[in-house]
TrEMBL record:
GO terms for molecular function: DNA-binding transcription factor activity; sequence-specific DNA binding. Coiled coil: none annotated. It comes from Cyclobacterium marinum (strain ATCC 25205 / DSM 745 / LMG 13164 / NCIMB 1802). Residues 198-299 form the HTH araC/xylS-type domain. It holds the Pfam family HTH_18. Transmembrane segments: none annotated. The keyword Transcription applies. Gene3D superfamilies: Homeodomain-like. PANTHER family: ARAC-FAMILY TRANSCRIPTIONAL REGULATOR, TRANSCRIPTIONAL REGULATORY PROTEIN. Keywords: DNA-binding, Transcription, Transcription regulation. InterPro entries: Homeodomain-like_sf (IPR009057), HTH_AraC (IPR018060), Tscrpt_reg_AraC-type_HTH (IPR020449). SUPFAM superfamilies: Homeodomain-like. This is Transcriptional regulator, AraC family.
Length: 303
């Protein structure tokens, strides 16, 4: 898989103009301009840059990670360094929009470097992109215009600080709009929780728990065709608990039933549930239930 360490090399591969700054590029068509056409097709590639882009795909699919997305309505999406990107010549873009690319070193040593690590949507797949209302789109466009203006001007000692400040503002708005999107997709969130529990039930019933151990959240997310981070964020917004917490609750619930069997030791229950180390199971159980597995068994033992 081809990897690009510099922004210039990445843009050259995309057949786009060289950037005005060695670590930052801004292509904006929020006014009457148009975005440059992307390279017609590409096998899987990676780079060391962040991308924030608002584009509308008229035809075709863009592969990002393991998923595809139809951009008929247009969406804002985010790509983090070393994420896998791929597309083919069936993709046709509507050329209005914007694309901001910056090397990860551009923000090193700044508050934005810490802020961006907390933005879960950089780990989302393309089918979890942010859909903007017309009003939200105007708000984002205004920020991008400010970034583009500073980018096109003769850059001085204040330029980087101003651009980073505007990027920080853009990400704060993205966080707000994602919160709105989660709320508006409440029915989808409920369905995702049901599917999550259903997949856990299938995994347990199939005997894979004893064969492969506790399933990873990444494995379940892949089956549900969502990214691991999006699954956790969606469940957290809807239920107040992350995907890991839901998995732990499922395991503890199963453990309660098995612990009532006096013929099984606590260690045997732990191994049966896929835990390699019984002490970890006991700590998790006590953390969730307030009492140890042994105390639970004594409290609810069958006569």
């Amino acid at each position: 898989m081809q990897h690009f360490k510099t922004l210039s090399a990445y843009l050259e591969y995309l057949e786009l103009p060289r950037p005005e700054h060695p670590m930052l590029s801004v292509f904006s068509a929020t006014g009457e301009g148009f975005l440059p056409c992307p390279k017609e097709s590409s096998p899987p590639i990676t780079n060391d840059c962040y991308t924030i882009s608002f584009q509308k795909i008229v035809k075709g699919d863009l592969n990002y990670g393991r998923t595809k997305y139809d951009f008929t309505n247009g969406a804002l999406f985010f790509i983090a360094p070393r994420q896998v990107l791929q597309w083919d010549n069936r993709v046709v873009f509507e050329q209005k929009g914007f694309s901001i690319n910056f090397h990860e070193d551009f923000i090193k040593g700044t508050e934005l470097a810490h802020q961006i690590k907390k933005c879960g949507f950089f780990s989302y797949s393309v089918n979890e992109a942010l859909h903007l209302s017309p009003r939200e789109e105007k708000q984002i466009e205004a920020i991008v215009e400010n970034i583009d203006l500073e980018y096109q001007n003769n850059q001085d000692e204040f330029s980087k600080e101003i651009i980073i400040s505007q990027l920080s503002t853009l990400l704060k708005y993205a966080n707000r709009f994602y919160e709105r999107q989660f709320i508006n997709r409440k029915a989808l969130s409920n369905d995702l929780l049901e599917q999550f529990n259903l997949e856990l039930e299938k995994y347990f019933d199939s005997g894979q728990l004893q064969e492969k151990g506790i399933p990873s959240i990444e494995h379940i997310a892949e089956i549900l065709s969502v990214s691991q981070r999006y699954l956790s964020d969606t469940l957290k917004k809807e239920t107040g608990k992350t995907s890991t917490e839901h998995l732990q609750l499922y395991l503890i619930d199963e453990a309660k039933n098995i612990l009532l069997d006096p013929n099984k030791t606590v260690a045997e229950v732990a191994y049966y549930l896929g835990f390699e180390y019984p002490p970890y199971f006991s700590r998790l159980f006590k953390k969730r239930e307030g009492i140890s597995p042994t105390e639970f068994r004594e409290k609810y033992k069958m006569n």
